[in-house]
Design goal:
mainly alpha; 79% helix
Length: 165
């Protein structure tokens, strides 16, 4: 019985050291987070994100505000660490340039699709006209054959008489 009590007594200072180290690491971080929350750009009250309104190729005012707020928060932390700040106008400019390229590609795609649709309609119309022409020509050919076959046989002697006059 003495051995477990002695082991527990020896473990008590070790447990105290672990708690001391844990509290030593937790308390300063907790204080820094609380203070950082109050010192963030935008004031004491946390700002709410503005929902984006617009289409997929244009940045709305809310999206621009969100990018600027995000950059302010990141720059606040980077200043504390002595790092170079990021430029929100560069981020916005990159997004705008990407959106311009996407709009251009989408416009070219739509134009190509419309061209193909119009060519298909023209080819379909031409095929219908050619088909109608061929069927009309076939009908005329059949009529000529039928009228030729319906002629009475001409006697060769009558044909010679007709040529004489």
């Amino acid at each position: 019985m003495v051995a477990p009590v002695a082991a527990a007594a020896a473990a008590a200072p070790a447990a105290g050291n672990v708690l001391t180290r844990f509290a030593g690491a937790l308390v300063p971080n907790l204080i820094a987070e609380i203070a950082g929350g109050f010192l963030r750009p935008g004031g004491v009250v946390p700002s709410t994100a503005t929902m984006p309104v617009g289409n997929k190729y244009n940045l709305s005012a809310g999206e621009v505000q969100n990018i600027v707020r995000m950059a302010d928060e990141i720059n606040f932390r980077r200043r504390m660490l002595g790092l170079e700040e990021i430029d929100p106008s560069q981020i916005i400019g990159d997004i705008v340039e990407t959106n311009r390229l996407l709009m251009k590609e989408a416009g070219e795609r739509e134009y190509a699709i419309e061209q193909l649709r119009q060519q298909g309609a023209i080819q379909s119309s031409l095929a219908n006209q050619i088909g109608a022409g061929l069927s009309a020509q076939g009908g005329a050919t059949q009529q000529m054959i039928a009228s030729t076959l319906q002629r009475p046989n001409i006697d060769p002697a009558d044909a010679e008489l007709a040529r004489a006059f």
